[in-house]
Amino acid sequence: MKTTKELLGGRIKELRRLRRLSQEELSEKVEIDPKHLSRIEVGRGFPSLDTLEKMANALNVELKDFFEFAHETSDPKELKRVLDGIVREVDKEKLKLLVKVARAMAR
What residue segments make up the domains of the chain, in order of their start? Predict the structure, then answer.
């Protein structure tokens, strides 16, 4: 089982990659050493609250988004609960897109 530091680091890395930022680019925006960011992403370091806030701003996410690890579970009930929450939060156009993606993946 992964530690909270590993889960947090993996989530930061996931969000950074979704924004198509390199470690160097994000570390520059957050004003930390790229080596420190690397240690955070692999779960060997832990960011301060100030650094987390800067990362959230740089990645255009809320702080709470760093702590969404539910997709890491293998429990089908938990995964369905997460999907249900996502479906409730999106607008009509995004819901249509989700249905298309889900259908394509289920084939």
Answer: 4-67, 73-106
